[in-house]
């Protein structure tokens, strides 16, 4: 989880999958605790505009942060931002099982029947299963990072405000190379999408960048942390850890065990932040990635991203839910979509108009960074390739490696379909 102190988290690359069934509900507002209009805000009114949400909320390994972020974003958009051209949004929330494509297919059909004008991909690793249905119905898919590599390989009928999965891999390994490090071992749950990213991207990219990369897998139900830490530390690689994580608790427990087994290299912990608070000085030296600024690095965050980050945390904490990566990520997607459509001047909310409005964005400033997004690229659905790499530099403090956003090598990204 993140701190509740007024200070965000993000990103990931392939997602640990969850197990469940489909469920759908409709929610046109956030929680009732903070529905009052901000003094400086504008309350939306009129007929709501329906937005669909593929929410990995079901099964034994759900992502409750998605619901937290969704509720917080709806509250902010409707009660402070002024909605979409003055009208409120209503989120049609559909729970998916990321290990069962049929659940995403069922949700896609329900969202079409529900009359949504766009569907949000809340880090669903089975998102490609929805694309034929959404494309046929002219409903665009909008997200931040395509956790499904097939979804990220084509720009058709989709827009992602963040970088492609490969950008995080390339950016991190570029940083390792610059620091004189040449070996990396990363773990993920033993699931098809993990193998697709690790075996299909991680190892080949390592060869391209001169990094000796090894991938290890743990059972989808969760790792034996001592055994996994021991395996990651074998051979004393320069860096080791998690490229993705199902939750903050997994990062914290693994980091603690890696310290216990005596690993002294760079511990890499995906987009987690809770370990920074829990481990204190023992977390110093660990690194994480993000597509936008996050709370432990608040002192390094430039304006206006800093003020926006504090707004996001306020609304997320008001929900009293799970303030993790998925909460801030979902909040970011919805707010960027609202700001983007308002900037584009969309007034007639249909699927094609929403897609054209978002695809037409150039030099767009995302809510919590980066700036200069361009969403009309012919070869990729992603509006940027920039990413942040953070290092814990002091007790409970992160700073960006390289002082800000990293641009992964375009020449390397061009080798990957949809990445550039």
CATH third-level topology of the largest domain: Rossmann fold
The tally of strands reads 13
Structural class: alpha/beta
**CATH H-level homologous superfamily name of the largest domain:** Response regulator
Form type:
globular
Please give the largest β-sheet. Answer: 6 strands, mixed
- Work out the count of structural domains: 2
CATH architecture of the largest domain: 3-Layer(aba) Sandwich
Low-confidence stretches: 1-26, 28-39
Q: What percent of the residues sit in helical stretches (DSSP H or I)?
A: 25-40%
Query: Approximately what portion of the residues adopt beta-strand conformation?
Result: 15-25%
CATH class of the largest domain: Alpha Beta
Protein name: Putative ABC transporter substrate-binding protein
Keywords: Signal
InterPro entries: BCAA_transport, Leu-bd, Peripla_BP_I
Pfam family, one: Peripla_BP_6
Overview of the structural elements:
The chain has 420 residues and is α/β, with parallel strands linked by helices. The chain has 2 domains: 23-162 and 303-359, Rossmann fold; 165-290 and 386-413, Response regulator (Rossmann fold). Helix content is 34%, strand content 16%. It is built from 12 helices and 13 strands. The chain has helices spanning 64-79, 101-113, 131-136, 165-178, 192-209, 225-233, 248-260, 274-279, 305-318, 325-344, 351-359, 410-413; strands at 23-27, 49-55, 89-95, 118-121, 141-143, 158-160, 183-189, 212-218, 239-242, 266-269, 287-290, 388-394, 397-400. Strands 1-3-2-4-5-6 form a 6-stranded mixed β-sheet, with helices on both faces. Helix 1 (64-79) links the parallel strand 2 (49-55) and strand 3 (89-95). Helix 4 runs parallel beside helix 5 (192-209). The longest helix has 20 residues, at 325-344.
């Amino acid at each position: 989880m993140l701190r509740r102190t007024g200070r965000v988290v993000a990103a990931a690359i392939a997602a640990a999958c969850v197990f469940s069934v489909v469920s759908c509900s409709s929610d046109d507002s956030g929680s009732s605790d903070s529905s009052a209009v901000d003094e400086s805000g504008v309350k939306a009114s009129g007929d709501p505009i329906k937005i669909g949400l593929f929410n990995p909320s079901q099964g034994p390994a759900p992502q409750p942060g998605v619901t937290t972020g969704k509720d917080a974003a709806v509250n902010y958009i409707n009660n402070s931002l002024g909605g979409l051209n003055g009208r409120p949004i209503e989120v049609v929330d559909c729970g998916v099982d990321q290990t069962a494509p049929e659940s995403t297919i069922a949700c896609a059909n329900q969202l079409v029947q529900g009359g949504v004008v766009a569907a949000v991909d809340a880090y669903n690793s089975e998102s490609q299963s929805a694309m034929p249905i959404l494309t046929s119905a002219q409903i665009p898919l909008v997200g931040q990072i395509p956790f499904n590599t097939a979804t990220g390989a084509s720009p058709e009928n989709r827009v992602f405000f963040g970088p492609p999965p490969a950008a995080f891999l390339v950016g991190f390994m570029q940083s390792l190379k610059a620091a004189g490090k040449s070996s990396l071992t990363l773990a993920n749950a033993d699931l098809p999408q993990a193998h697709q990213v690790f075996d299909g991207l991680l190892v080949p990219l390592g060869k391209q960048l001169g990094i000796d990369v090894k991938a290890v897998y743990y059972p989808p139900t969760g790792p034996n942390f001592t055994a996994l830490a021991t395996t990651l530390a074998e051979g004393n690689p320069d860096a080791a850890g998690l490229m993705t994580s199902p939750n903050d608790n997994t990062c914290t427990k693994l980091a603690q065990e890696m310290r216990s087994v005596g690993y002294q290299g760079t511990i890499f912990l995906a987009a987690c932040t809770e370990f920074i608070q829990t481990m204190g000085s023992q977390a110093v030296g660990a690194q994480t990635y993000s597509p936008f600024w996050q709370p432990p690095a608040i002192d390094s965050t430039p304006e206006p991203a800093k003020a926006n980050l504090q707004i996001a945390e306020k609304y997320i904490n008001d929900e009293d839910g799970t303030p993790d990566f998925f909460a801030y990520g979902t909040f970011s997607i919805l707010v960027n979509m609202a700001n983007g459509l308002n900037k584009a001047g969309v007034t007639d909310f249909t699927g094609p108009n929403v897609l054209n409005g978002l695809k037409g964005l150039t030099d767009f400033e995302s809510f919590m960074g980066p700036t200069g997004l361009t969403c009309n690229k012919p070869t990729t659905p992603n509006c940027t390739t920039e990413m942040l790499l953070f290092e814990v530099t002091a007790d409970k403090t992160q700073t960006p490696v390289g002082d800000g956003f990293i641009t992964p090598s375009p020449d390397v990204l061009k080798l990957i379909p949809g990445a550039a």
